[in-house]
Amino acid sequence: MPAFKFRLQTVLEHKQRLEELAQLEHAQAQAAQSKEERALGQLHDAERRGFAELERQRFAGRLDIEALQFGMTYLDALKVQITRQELVVDRVRRATEAKRERLITAMQERKALERLRETQQKAFNREAARREAVEQDELVVMRFPQTSRRAGARPLPSGASSHAYA
């Protein structure tokens, strides 16, 4: 008897490759998102340090207007960088989410084909078991008269039932 062959095996393999590619793209997007989020965190840290330095100078005694102006200019520049970086992080997060959605879709498509293959495999196995049972039954039926003759039993006359001779 021939072995089970899934007719859509090449499609399933293609879906598996697409899923692997989607996993790779999603991982790359996550890495890019993490990098941009770290950069944003560093900018926020620099802003906190800048504010802390201005506060320290304010309470240090003598007020240096030039240093204060320099510090305020620095903090303004940081705010602009932070705003830009937040936009970058938002764009990268949306891209990562889109890649995640593609990955989920690819996984669902592959799993659907795998479930179909499993269903067809089970049906094939049930049919094979049924055929084997039929073949066994036919072999038993074909061997029965030969076995009973060898054991010394007389064949039944046509039309007679085995209950009449018992």
Question: How would you describe this structure to a colleague?
Answer:
With 166 residues, the chain is mainly α. It has a domain at 9-109. 83% of the residues lie in helices and 0% in strands. It contains 2 helices and no strands. Helix 1 packs antiparallel against helix 2 (65-150). The protein is rod-shaped, with a radius of gyration of 40 Å.
What attributes characterize this protein structure?
rod-shaped, mainly alpha, 166 residues
Largest beta-sheet characterization? none
Quaternary structure classification? single chain
- Report the helical percentage: over 70%
Output the radius of gyration: 40 Å
- Structural class by helix and strand composition: mainly alpha
* Ends apart, CA distance between termini: 42 Å
Number of helices: 2
* Beta-strand segment tally: 0
Mean pLDDT: 88
| Poorly predicted segments | none
Instruction: List SSEs in N-to-C order.
Output: HH
The coarse silhouette is rod-shaped
- Strand content is under 5%
SSE map:
Elements: H1 9-59, H2 65-150
How would you summarize what this structure contains?
This protein has a domain at 9-109. The chain is built from two helices and no strands.
